[in-house]
Amino acid sequence: MLLQGEIDDIVPVLSQALTQTGVVNRQWLITTVATDGFSAELAARAPAAATGDEVGAAAVDIAIELGWAGFPAERTPLERLLSGLQLQQGTGGVAPLPILPAIVSRLLNGEDVREPIWTSNWLRFNEPLVDRSGLRSQLRGFARRDRDARPILRIEGEGSKIGKSHSIELMHFAREKYRTFKIAELTLEEGQETFYTSVTLAQEIVARIDTAPPSLESPVTRHNLNPQKPEKQHLPHLSNWITQAVSRSREHWWIILDKFGAASRTSLTRELIDLLADDVANGSAGSSLRLILIDFTAPLTRVNEKKRVAYDRPNPQDITSDEIKNALKAFCERAQKPRPDAELLERAKAILAALPTDHTRLVRLNDVLLPAAEELTK
Predict the structure, then answer these.
(1) What digits encode the pLDDT tens for the residues 192-221?
(2) 17 and 45 assigned to the same domain
(3) 234 lies in which domain range?
(4) Are residues 259 and 163 in the same domain?
(5) Which is it for strands 309-312 and 289-294: parallel, antiparallel or unpaired?
(6) Both 234 and 269 in a single domain?
(7) N or C: which end of the chain has fewer CB within 10 A?
(8) Rounded CA gap, 356 and 374, in Å?
(9) What percent of the chain lies above the pLDDT cut of 70?
(10) Same domain, 287 and 329
(11) Same domain, 188 and 216
């Protein structure tokens, strides 16, 4: 990962390279990074009056955020930026930066400078997540669009309150940090088993994605579909409607469907999900769409699950004292109040020993972990 101290060292030197002529040379940045979206994002974050330091800091942040989406590891936006900076050292008053060759070498070897996203124990609003290495690895592949990452993720497990739906917190946390993909999330709440038909599910997904003009006719209108009386023959039209909305948006999307295994078997909802999974796993939709099914339970009959589907099965009984210790340690370090490892491990063991062993185990851990961490940083 790229440390904050390394970024702090890079920015002043980058500022020197940008201001050799007395004005901030934004065009050099744009030409060097040569990545779609970089110029517009730079203009938005560093207006015309911005200093060299401000433009340099924004450029590094944007290059990190654009990350690996669609790039082979050796030519990421950040690697291009820092390789370009290497060529400027020693010219026009640009100071040498001894750490730069090693950083560029790490990038050329495929290092993900945003790795802290995937090891973080504290998500949005200080929601804790202390384990789930398999989930983290799969979502990291989604975000980087790794070619070998399976395009569908199923999160399954016996019982409730074991962390299946809580997995969504990591997805939203990563979305906010990466900013190279978007999320369309739907949950089938208890009592809604008959609310979602294949038609209403497609409508809800498209409503979260689409920016189509009102004049664009939907398949619901074109085929005069009754949302409460769907017909099997129209399922391909509905699946295509979803994938076309994704394509039209020119964004990368993760569709998260939670608890749709409880959908009525007569609603055709499950069959639409099966068809959408086929489009993601075997069709062109997989280039810009990932599908995450939580508690779906039904088999995907059109997909070779052994090759195209990844699984995550959370189990709160597997959480260890070391994982809790690492979460406490991360919180203390973030607050710049580090504590000895031995003390943190003893506290973690005490927390683990006090947890119930029934279905409330994870809920209880999430309730006590933040207060324990805050107490350590007083």
Answers:
(1) 888 899 999 999 999 999 876 666 778 888
(2) yes
(3) 116-314
(4) yes
(5) unpaired
(6) yes
(7) C
(8) 22
(9) 95
(10) no
(11) yes
pTM of the complete model: 0.75
Q: How many domains does the chain have?
A: 3
SS (H, E, C) the chain: CCCHHHHHHHHHHHHHHHCCCCCCCHHHHHHHHCCCCHHHHHHHHCCCCCCHHHHHHHHHHHHHHHCCCCCCHHHCHHHHHHHHHHHHCCCCCCCCCCCHHHHHHHHHCCCCCCCHHHHCCECHHHCECCCCHHHHHHHHHHHHCCCCCCCEEEECCCCCCCCCCCHHHHHHHHHHHHCCCEEEEEECCCCCCCCCCHHHHHHHHHHHHCCCCCCCCCHHHHCCCCCCCCCHHHHHHHHHHHHHHHHHHCCCEEEEEECHHHCCCCCCHHHHHHHHHHHHHHCHHHHCEEEEEECCCCCCCCCCHHHHEEEECCCHHHCCHHHHHHHHHHHHHHCCCCCCHHHHHHHHHHHHHCCCCCCCHHHHHHHHHHHHHHHHCC
Answer yes or no: do 295 and 171 share one domain: yes
Domain end call among 291, 314, 337:
314
Give percent of the chain above pLDDT 90.
56
**Tens digit of pLDDT for each residue in 40-57?**
889 988 888 899 999 999
pLDDT for 116 equals 72
For the segment 211-251, what is each residue's pLDDT rounded down to a tens digit?
766 667 788 888 888 888 888 999 999 999 999 999 988 88
- Structure confidence at residue 112 (pLDDT): 67
Among the candidates 108, 127, 145, a domain finishes at: 108
What confidence score (pLDDT) does residue 71 get?
A: 56
Q: What is the CATH number of the domain that holds 225?
A: 3.40.50.300
**pLDDT tier, 8 (very low <50, low <70, confident <90, very high otherwise):** confident
Q: Same structural domain for residues 304 and 357?
A: no
Residues 305 and 171 in one domain: yes
